[in-house]
Design a protein that fits this description.
The chain has 110 residues and is an all-alpha fold. It has a domain at 10-84: 434 Repressor (Amino-terminal Domain) (Orthogonal Bundle), CATH 1.10.260. 45% of the residues lie in helices and 0% in strands. α2 packs across α3 and α3 packs across α4 (49-58). The longest helix is centred in the first third of the chain and has 12 residues, at 10-21. The N and C termini lie far apart (64 Å).
């Protein structure tokens, strides 16, 4: 049985970012994501595909090597919003509430 790859420790990711860009805030500014989104991705609290890719690009490491539980070896996300099969989704388009009124009608009545 093959061993599961070990993901990087958050402090190792922070150190790699600091070696390349000096601060995590600099990564946030250059990538266009908020500092809290970058920190959440580094700490592994939330699966955020955009910040995760920004971090892996900045330190020149594949996302799979950083977070093997979140990314497949080919770099595609394993879970989260980007892993949803969007071809089979259906969306509500009528924008009516259960009582039959639309949002605009409800606001005008109030």
């Amino acid at each position: 049985m093959a061993k599961r790859p070990i993901e990087w420790h958050p402090e190792d990711v922070r150190a790699a970012v600091r070696k390349r860009l000096k601060t995590i805030a600099a990564l946030a500014r250059s990538s266009g994501f908020s500092l809290s989104a970058i920190c959440q991705a580094i700490n592994g609290r939330n699966f955020l595909p955009g910040p995760c890719l920004a971090i892996s690009t900045a330190i020149e490491v594949s996302p799979h090597e950083l977070w093997p539980d979140w990314y497949a070896p080919d770099g595609t996300p394993r879970k989260g919003r980007d892993a949803i099969d969007t071809a089979n989704l259906t969306y509500r388009t009528d924008h009516t509430r259960p009582n039959g009124n639309s949002r605009d009608q409800t606001r005008r009545a109030a």
